[in-house]
Amino acid sequence: MEVFVPRYYKDFKCIAKDCAHSCCIGWQIEIDSKTQEKYANLKGDYADAIRRSLTKKNPPHFKLVKGKRCPHLNNDGLCKIIIDYGEEYLCDICREHPRFYNRTARGLEVGLGISCPTACKLVLTTDGYADFVKTADVDYFEELPPYDCSNALDKIFKIIGDRQTTLSDRIEEIERTFLVSPKEQTDERWKKIINSLEYLNEDHRALFLNYSNLSVCPKNLETFCERAFAYFAYRHLPTAQNPDEFRKTLGFCLFLLRLLISSIINACVTDIDGTVSLAVTISEEIEYSLDNQEQILSAFTKL
């Protein structure tokens, strides 16, 4: 199977201890079965500490300590497991984050999730989101996905990338072309849905409740938001299993874009750093919560 990545993918590098928004804080880190077996047989001074840090729940995960920190994150922001044993002893989640994988008709497509601020800034400041590079062939095969959205995704990239028109016009063209829009629900209905979501940080509930279907992106931030939408589309649309799921998932992506624009306006953001911060917040609160995703997707279900 061929493996493809966006052209900007090669420029990503974790900044580890220099990251101000560590992925080792605040997240429940589940341990895959292969890594669990590694830990069970691990020798060395730190092996018992690793085993004691695991819950007995299924699936097992690290028990967070004060400040919701991973128990293996040292005071310098570095991973003790890597220091003592090397990256090959990380669990799948820690080794792969912030990468995601989609099996498509073309092959295996890999991307970078924007809950990571470093990845987010790279995604929002780099053109070429529709330009993919083959990186490898892997000895792996599954049946092709039941639904191929590649032509529709190419069309979406073409529309959203046309900078001869405003971002608002491009969004509306996509909505007309694919017959889906967050405007199918009133602002009041969206606010009820937003209020019902689960939050890692309660302050984000108040931020998201400023949502408006009519929010217009500031001109100087249009390109950043364009790239954010292209990322949402690339990440989520290939997961659709049929035309109806595609429509709902595109609605979900359009909602995330409108939520980002609404948050920019209400937080008075004027630059890339503020835009990245808001995009990271939206990603970690919604993209990384299956329950929150499902609530938003259900708003686009045809009766």
Brief sketch in words of this structure:
This protein has helices spanning 33-40, 47-52, 80-85, 92-96, 117-124, 150-160, 167-178, 187-196, 203-208, 222-236, 243-266, 272-287, 290-298, and strands at 2-6, 99-103, 108-112, 132-137.
Helix content: 40-55%
Q: How many strand units? A: 4
Strand order of the largest sheet: 2-3-1-4
Structural class computed from helices and strand pairing: alpha+beta
Morphology: globular
N-to-C CA distance: 39 Å
Strand content: 5-15%
Radius of gyration: 20 Å
Order of helices and strands: EHHHHEEHEHHHHHHHH
Low-pLDDT residue spans: none
**What is the residue-mean pLDDT, rounded to a whole number?**
91
Discrete helix count:
13
**Structural domains: how many:** 3
Question: Strand count, sense and closure of the main sheet?
Answer: 4 strands, mixed
Which oligomeric form is depicted?
Answer: single chain
Provide an overview of this structure.
It contains 13 helices and four strands. It is an alpha+beta fold and 303 residues long. The chain has three domains: 2-13 and 103-137, no CATH class; 24-96, no CATH class; 150-298, no CATH class. It has a four-stranded mixed beta sheet with strand order 2-3-1-4. β2 (99-103) and β3 (108-112) form a beta hairpin. α6 (150-160) packs antiparallel against α10 (222-236) and α11 (243-266) packs across α13 (290-298). The longest helix has 24 residues, at 243-266. The chain is globular. The two termini are 39 Å apart.
